[in-house]
Amino acid sequence: MKKKLMLFTCCLLSVVLAQSQNINRSSFTKDSLNIYMNLALTGWRIPGAAVCIIKDDKIVVMKGYGIKELGMMNKVDENTLFMIGANTETFTATALAMLQSNNRLSLDDKITKYLPEFKLDNKTAGEQATIRDLLCHHLGFESFQGNFTFYNTNLTNRQIIEKMGGIKAAYPFRTKWGYSNAAYAVAGEIIPWVAGKTWEDYLRGAFFSPLGMRNTQTFTKDMPYSSNRTVPHTLVDGRLTAIPYAQLDGLAPAVSICSSINDLSKWVMALLNDGKVGNKQVIPPAAIAATYQQQDVVGNVHRLNGETDEQQYGLGWFLENYAGHHLVMNNGRANGYLSSITLVPQEHLGIIILTNTDQNLLFEALRWEILDAFFKMPYRNYSEMYLKRYKTNEAKKLLIDKRLRDSVALNLSPAMAINNYTGRYTNELYGNMTVTQGENNNLEIRFEHHPKMYVHLQPLGGNRFYATFSDPEYGKAVFPFIFQNGRITSVRVKVNDEVERSPYDFKKVE
Questions:
Q1: pTM listed for this prediction
Q2: How high is the pLDDT of residue 4?
Q3: All CATH 2.40.128.600 domain ranges in the chain, comma separated
Q4: What gap in Å lies between CA 301 and CA 311, rounded to an integer?
């Protein structure tokens, strides 16, 4: 019976979507979106989502889908909170651009004018770096460089700024775009020196209160205490699982805001209306324009419809051209969450998509689906195309993981007695970690700045160990231990690429 019902629903969706291609593609949002979303949530295994579409200063769609937490029946509504990850950066960038418009600072001021203690590994770069360099990710870092040290750790904002001086930039200063959460943590710390208010208080006074964003929270630590909130989810060995809230407040100006589609609709509507709410000018138009101005080229993007375009970066926003339209957009990721915000300023069109799992590409697919509908382009079912690619990639990952687990099952002995691997190890940027002996020849790693997380190591033979992080966000990997002159000298630690792409070498100190 269920199979027949699903088949009937799919056929109905196909008919509705085919008709919408022949009549008016913009009717997708009214006639087909609910069916599309219900099928997509099932296909992607997303517990809950929220979607808002704004056109010409009016709400076209504002709706929650699914549930807040797996196994519970509480439904998502327009006021349900989600973590929005890097979409936080658009608020921080606009706040600093607003201070420039009010002649409180210049985005081309040197960072050391406000934070004399700020340093980079390249001394000259640290002395010359400006606020603009922070906001457009122009410090020479590789994307996500240092993120393992800073993300979801017990480090404070000030400690993160201090540790940034230990990052050995992958590229020369200002020669290559490289995304950095830590850069925005520094940028947010400039606001109190100029405005006399903390970052969070300035955002509340400049944006949240005048726009009526009553439920929005600036810190992740407050999320568990909200009465109307989602729970984060991810896939663990193929099973959809609820996970703890990430603690991201050390990187607050980059990733910590929690909000709803109702609140975010007011933010997006203000941006599309040149900063006005009614007759009141809340955000200076010059501040908004400054964030939309191209600062750097990120690279080429290859879309599923066959188009290739150059992706650019402004201040907190990615910039693209699509079907003759200029797009201003950003994606946000936090443990268990993915989101996207898209603006088409010339069309007065805004799209907000929030999901409470970090294992989906629906937040991307739906963006293009809605844009195509408003641009009267053919229906492509991006969700299905993205899902096929996603499943193919996941199958490859599972196969690699199975081969490693099969190797573990062979009970291969390490090259040296297990106690030779134990002890304290240190990395110049991160700090310390401790390796202890578990059962049999297994090892366990504990990290100084991730006190709730550990890594379980199982021998693969020789000096290689299969590593499984207790926090699934950090993934699984192979950790090779290095030995010289008959003794262990270091180990290479690798986390999920979504956290940081480069490995960390920890030297054995005792």
A1: 0.93
A2: 41
A3: 418-508
A4: 6
What pLDDT is attached to residue 24? Answer: 46
Q: What is the share, in percent, of the chain residues with pLDDT greater than 70?
A: 95
CATH 3.40.710.10 segments of the chain: 45-378
> Which phi and psi angles does 338 have, rounded to 5°?
-140, 140
Q: How far apart are CA 188 and CA 114, in angstroms?
A: 11
Q: In angstroms, rounded to a whole number, what is the distance separating the alpha carbons of residues 50 and 65?
A: 6
State yes or no: pLDDT of 11 exceeds 50.
no
- Number of other residues whose CB lies within 10 A of the CB of residue 151: 29
Give the residue with greater pLDDT, 149 vs 31.
149
* Separation between Cα atoms, residue 20 and residue 376, nearest integer Å: 10
Whether residue 365 contacts residue 386, with contact meaning beta carbons closer than 8 Å, is answered with: yes
Its CATH class, for the domain covering 45-378, is alpha beta
Q: Which among 136, 85, 24, 148 has a CA at the least distance from the CA of 335?
A: 85
User: What DSSP letter does each residue of 34-90 carry, written as one string?
Assistant: HHHHHHHHHHHT-SEEEEEEEETTEEEEEEEEEBSSTT--PBP-TT-BEE-GGGHHH
CA dihedral 276, 281, 287, 292 (to 10 degrees): 10
Over the stretch 176-207, which tens digit does the pLDDT of each residue have?
A: 999 999 999 999 999 999 999 999 999 999 99
CA 65 remoteness from chain centre: 21
Of 2.40.128.600, 1.10.443.10, 2.40.30.200, 3.30.565.10, the CATH number of 418-508 is 2.40.128.600
Helices (H) and strands (E) in the chain, counts: 15, 22
The answer to whether the CB of 339 falls within 8 A of the CB of 84 is yes
Query: Tens digit of pLDDT for each residue in 496-506?
Result: 999 999 999 99
Mean pLDDT value across the chain: 93
What's the order of all strands across the beta sheet hosting 48-55? Answer: 58-66, 48-55, 349-355, 337-344, 325-334, 318-322, 308-313, 296-302
